[in-house]
Amino acid sequence: MHGLARVRLAAGADGTALADLDQRVPLRALFPTPAERDPFTVALVTTSGGLVGGDTLQFDLGVDAGAKGLFVAQAAEKVYRSAGPEGRITMRLAAGPGAWLEFLPQETILFDNARFCRHTDIEVAHDARLLAGEILVFGRTARGERMTRGLVRESFRIYREGRLAWCDALHLDGDIGAHLDEPAGFSGCHALATLVLVADDASRYLAVLRAAGQDTAIHFGATVVNGILVARWLAKDSLALRRSFGTAWGQLRAAAGRLPKTLPRLWHI
Question: Taking a C-beta distance cutoff of 8 angstroms, is the pair 42, 78 a contact?
Answer without folding.
Answer: no
